[in-house]
Each structure stands twice: as structure tokens, then as C-alpha cells.
């Protein structure tokens, strides 16, 4: 199986020396090509992207849990995001501020704005790839050329700004492997920073088994997450995330906080 071969070879691939060649594009150019190949112009024109998400977790002991939620994203301005969780919980971000409500009641704690943005980033970054590579706080530090199973690939290092994710365990340099022929994402992964490995030793390896097309743009329809240790060996833990994507007409009220909506009503 190609994916199993990739899992076995990836640690060797990343450890092996890579000889740079003149034709190797700059990291930012690779990202631009990935987004263009996935339909970047069409994605930006969607307006409001709706994602109905179902995730199923399997732990090392074989037990499992499931979770559902619905997300909304302004595809022209990715900083406008909203997630609706069961129990009438909403986490959203608009412009420079994040907010959250439960049962319609505003969470007015000082840390809510910052935590809302981090929570949204952590949840939506994998679902929106490759477009989310343009989110503020995401960088491509380096790109190397390699060959995997006879297929030429780019190996990208993706560091994140401190505080980009709600969990500091994820705030490390991720590794992404991208096919050179069609600029598709083959796999990406991270292991926790050294200072967190005693309390959280497991990282995650991602792949996208199924894609879907929405409004002319290519998006993940299914994500497979597999737990890995610091050496890249897999555990029995995994998560299957299924995403049903659709478009809807523009609705700014999805992203505006209750205070912003009240202010607009008073103006009217």
C-alpha cells in the first residue's frame, strides 16, 4: 500500500541529506502552486464555506468517541471563522477579535478573544489545507527536494507563530510532503516539542484519503489522523474526520459578535 510505504520511508526520507538544485522553487512559490492547483481563485470566490464535520476517535485501548460540529469560513478573508458545537456553544472570530457564547450568553472573560482564535486555528487549519497555509501565523521555513517511491516530492518545514494553536504541543515545526507532479499533499505530521514530550509524548501523522470539489475548489472530504511517537512509530490511536462541504450566500452575521450586531441594530 502506498500510504504504508510512505509511513515507513518518511523518517528515513526526512533524515537523509537532500542536494539542492537550481530548479527548486522558493517555499512560498511552492505554496502558491499548491493553492493554484487546488483551485485557489475559485475558493476565494465561494464566499461562505460551510463544513459539517463528524470525527470518530479510536484510543490505544480500542475504545472510541465521536463528535460533530459545524464550521463556517469566509473564504475571501480566512480570519472570519465560526464553529457551532453541540450544547449551543459558538466560537467565532471576526476582524481582530474572537468571541464565544454558550446558550446565547457571551463569554466575557479577558482571555476569551485570544483563546477563540487559537481554538479556531487548531480545528480549521487541517480542514482547510492547502488554503490555510496562507493564514497569518503560518510560515514555510524551508523546502527540500527528494524522491519517494520513484515520485519526486517537496519536503516542507512549517513553523507556526507562538500561540497559533490552543495547545502548545502543536506549536512546533510540522513536516509536509507534497508531490511535485500535481502539487497534492501526500502527508504531513508533527511530534511534540521536546519540553512537552514527558507529558504529551504523541504526535500526529495526517493524510487525506478523499477529496471533494466545492464551487470549483478542492477540499478534504476525509482526514485520517494517526498517533505517532517521537521516532515516528505509529500507535493504535487514530481519528477519522469526515467533512461535508457546501456553499451558502454571504451572511456577515455569522462572524459578528453579539456586541457588534447590537451596535449595527442601534445604528439602523
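Q: What amino acid sequence fits the structure above?
A:
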Amino acid at each position: 500500500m502506498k500510504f504504508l510505504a510512505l509511513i515507513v520511508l518518511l523518517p528515513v526520507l526526512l533524515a537523509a541529506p537532500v542536494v539542492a538544485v537550481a530548479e527548486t522553487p522558493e517555499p512560498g512559490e511552492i505554496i502558491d502552486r499548491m493553492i493554484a492547483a487546488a483551485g485557489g481563485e475559485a475558493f476565494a470566490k465561494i464566499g461562505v464555506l460551510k463544513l459539517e464535520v463528524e470525527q470518530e476517535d479510536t484510543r490505544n485501548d480500542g475504545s472510541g468517541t465521536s463528535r460533530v460540529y459545524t464550521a463556517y469560513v469566509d473564504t475571501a478573508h480566512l480570519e472570519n471563522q465560526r464553529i457551532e458545537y453541540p450544547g449551543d456553544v459558538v466560537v467565532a472570530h471576526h476582524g481582530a477579535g474572537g468571541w464565544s457564547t454558550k446558550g446565547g450568553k457571551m463569554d466575557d472573560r479577558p482571555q476569551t478573544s485570544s483563546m477563540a482564535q487559537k481554538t479556531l486555528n487548531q480545528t480549521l487549519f487541517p480542514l482547510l489545507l492547502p488554503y490555510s497555509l496562507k493564514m497569518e501565523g503560518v510560515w514555510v521555513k524551508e523546502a527540500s527536494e527528494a524522491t519517494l517511491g520513484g515520485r519526486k516530492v517537496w519536503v516542507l518545514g512549517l513553523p507556526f507563530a507562538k500561540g497559533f494553536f490552543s495547545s502548545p504541543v502543536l506549536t512546533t515545526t510540522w513536516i509536509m510532503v507534497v508531490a511535485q507532479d500535481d502539487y497534492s499533499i501526500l502527508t504531513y505530521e508533527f511530534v511534540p516539542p521536546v519540553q512537552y514530550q514527558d507529558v504529551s509524548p504523541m504526535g500526529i501523522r495526517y493524510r487525506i484519503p478523499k477529496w471533494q470539489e466545492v464551487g470549483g475548489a478542492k477540499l478534504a472530504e476525509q482526514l485520517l489522523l494517526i498517533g505517532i511517537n517521537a521516532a515516528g512509530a505509529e500507535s493504535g490511536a487514530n481519528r477519522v474526520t469526515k467533512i461535508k462541504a457546501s456553499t451558502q450566500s454571504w451572511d456577515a452575521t455569522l462572524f459578528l459578535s453579539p456586541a457588534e450586531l447590537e451596535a449595527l441594530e442601534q445604528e439602523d
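Q: And what stands out in the fold?
A: The first strand starts at residue 48 and ends at 58.
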